[in-house]
Amino acid sequence: MPIKIPDTLPARGVLEGENIFVMTSSRALKQDIRPLRLVILNLMPTKMVTEAQLLRCLSNTPLQIEIELMQTATYSSKNTDPSHLVAHYTTFSEIRDRRYDGMIITGAPVELLPFERVAYWNELCEIMEWSKTNVTSAFHICWGAQAALFYHYGVPKTELAGKLFGVFEQSVEDPLCPLTRGFDDIFLAPHSRYTGVSAEAVAAVPELAVLSRGPRAGLYIAMSRGGRQVFVMGHSEYDAETLALEYRRDIEKGQDAALPVNYFPQDDPARTPQKTWRSHAQLLYSNWLNYYVYQTTPYDLENG
Predict the structure, then answer these.
(1) Which of these, 86, 138, 185, lies nearest to 297 by C-alpha position?
(2) Residue 225 main-chain phi, psi, to 5 deg
(3) 229-270 residue pLDDT tens
(4) How far apart, in whole angstroms, are the C-alpha atoms of residue 165 and residue 52?
(5) Rounded distance, CA 216 to CA 198, Å?
(6) pLDDT in tens, 94-134
(7) Going along the chain, which residue ranges are E strands?
(8) How many Å apart are CA 217 and CA 221, to the nearest integer?
(9) What DSSP line would sit under 180-193, residue for residue?
(10) How far apart are CA 134 and CA 130, in angstroms?
């Protein structure tokens, strides 16, 4: 079954061009089943790219999913056409009385700022507090995961010695956890960040479990007991070319950018990178949707 998206969302053409089954709102109205309701708080500057990446990951499931996109009201994106935001995005004030089966909070390029200095921090805190009662399970990505661990559990982020940039090995810490069901013992995930969270600090919180970590990337996946909150430090949703585009952007800016680790074939940036994390990205999202959203959400959200 497909994800349900607005007929006019540009990601529709991208996904259909990749032979990914999506369902427009008009077609979904003809089906007599309740779709899962997901809201995505998109904090990334290139919002349309992130939309397509996340929808691609959410598409590999037998469940019908209704997607709503949200932006912050206290900070306006400078990299997305305002008409796209007006047509496809909502703000928290418009949805605060609604309930959702699932929520995704993306990363954001604000890692080196203290949380309190981020322009929309107070708004984000309000949204994260609201998610505790209005969302069955919340999935946090990269900086979004760091922010949520700090807000909900007081676990601080730490600045790394240098940018963690590339595709890194991760290991499964709990093979019996449904979120990592089907994962290889060792798998790959992309990272692009200057900060991280200590796996030991997370493990010291009784309400949290460390599900995956790596020798170089450190903590990768953590989860609250029961799965109401999921924290993913990397970017499993990234396209094959995402790190290459970031590397070339930094080079063009005159920065002394290091090659992303374990990414370009033979470390040659002229060669096309391969997407070596696709299967685990699909498993991560489909497992989350199945075991921590669909299996636990009430049929009647408003009375759940």
Answers:
(1) 138
(2) -60, 125
(3) 999 999 999 999 999 999 999 899 888 789 999 999 999 999
(4) 22
(5) 12
(6) 999 999 999 999 999 999 999 999 999 999 999 999 999 99
(7) 3-5, 22-24, 36-41, 65-70, 89-90, 100-105, 135-141, 158-172, 186-196, 208-214, 218-224, 229-232
(8) 11
(9) GTT--SEEEEEEEE
(10) 6
Give domain 3-239+275-297's CATH number out of 3.40.1160.10, 3.40.50.880, 3.20.20.190, 1.10.10.10: 3.40.50.880
Spatial distance between the Cα atoms of 131 and 140, rounded to a whole number of angstroms: 12
pLDDT for 1 equals 44
Do residues 229 and 138 make contact, with C-beta atoms less than 8 angstroms apart?
yes
Q: Which amino acid does the sequence have at 24?
A: T
Tokens encoding 48: 């349309």
What is the spatial distance between Cα 181 and Cα 202, in angstroms, rounded to a whole number? 21
Picking from 196, 192, 213, 121, the residue whose alpha carbon sits closest to that of residue 155 is 196
Interatomic CA distance for residues 8 and 87, integer angstroms: 9
* Residues in the chain, total: 304
230: closest CA among 170, 162, 288?
Answer: 288
What residues are annotated to the active site? 142, 235, 237
**Start-to-end CA span in the chain (Å):** 24
Number of neighbours of residue 138 by Cβ within 10 angstroms: 28
Mean pLDDT score of the chain: 91
Residue 181: alpha-carbon gap to chain centroid? 18
Which stretches within 177-235 are classed as H helix? Answer: 199-203
φ, ψ (nearest 5 deg) of residue 219: -55, 130
Amino acid at 219: L
Question: In this structure, are residues 212 and 175 in contact, taking their beta carbons and an 8 Å threshold?
Answer: no
Nearest to 198 by CA among 148, 235, 140, 156: 156
* Domain regions of the chain by residue span: 3-239+275-297
Do the Cβ atoms of 190 and 284 come closer than 8 Å? no
